[in-house]
Amino acid sequence: MLFAVEATRRWARDGITANALMPGAIYTNLQRHTSGRGSGKVPPELIRTPEHRSTWPPVSRRGHRSARGFT
């Protein structure tokens, strides 16, 4: 994400923009010692538009973010 922001800032006058996206969960051996609880869950506040996602506050009215995910 930060690369896309900085690349767009640096090369905007040349007509170059960069985009970033989250391709989804990529399961590797890093997850072998976790329970998987909460993985792949997205709070409703994040499924609007990319602009909304990039400005979404970490604490919402409907729930809160904790070490265990969104509740």
From TrEMBL:
Region Disordered, residue ranges: 31-71
Organism: Actinophytocola algeriensis
Ranges of compositional bias, category Basic residues: 61-71
Protein name: NAD(P)-dependent dehydrogenase (Short-subunit alcohol dehydrogenase family)
